Amino acid sequence: MIDDSKPIFMQIAELIENDIISGVLAEEAQVPSTNEFAAFYRINPATAAKGINRLVEDGLLYKKRGIGMFVTQGAPQRLRGARREKFQQQFIAPLTAEASKLGIGVDELVAMIKTGSDT
Question: HTH gntR-type domain spans which residues (predicted)?
Fold first, then answer.
C-alpha cells in the first residue's frame, strides 16, 4: 500500500484515518504501534512515529503512557467533517463553477451526477 506519490509518514497517517472513518478502529481502540507499522511496511520506526504523531497533534489519537496510542472520542466525526470540507473545496466548487460556465443548471447537474453514479 505504500507508494512514492507522497511522504510515507503521511500515508501512514491516512491509513489510520481511513481505518477510523471506516470503523476498523473505533473510538478508544488501540492503534498499532510504530514498531508494528515499521515491521509490516518495512519502514523506519521514526517514519511511522511521525505519521502517528501527526494524528496526535490533530487530536485524533492520544497516548496512554506505557500502553500505546488510542483513538480519541469523536475522531470519526471530526475526520468525516474535515474530509467533507476538503471534498467540497477540491471537487464540488470546481464542478459547480465549470457547470455554471457551461450553462448547466443545478437540476441538470444533479441528473448528470445521478446518471454517472448508475454506471
Answer: 6-74
Q: Rounded distance, CA 84 to CA 69, Å?
A: 26
69-49-34 Cα angle (round to 5): 65
Which DSSP category does 29 fall into? P
pLDDT tens sequence across 21-32: 999 999 999 999
User: How many angstroms separate the CA atoms of 80 and 105, rounded?
Assistant: 28
Sequence-ordered alpha helix ranges (H) in the chain: 8-22, 34-41, 45-57, 75-87, 93-101, 106-117
Beta-bridge mates of residue 69: 63
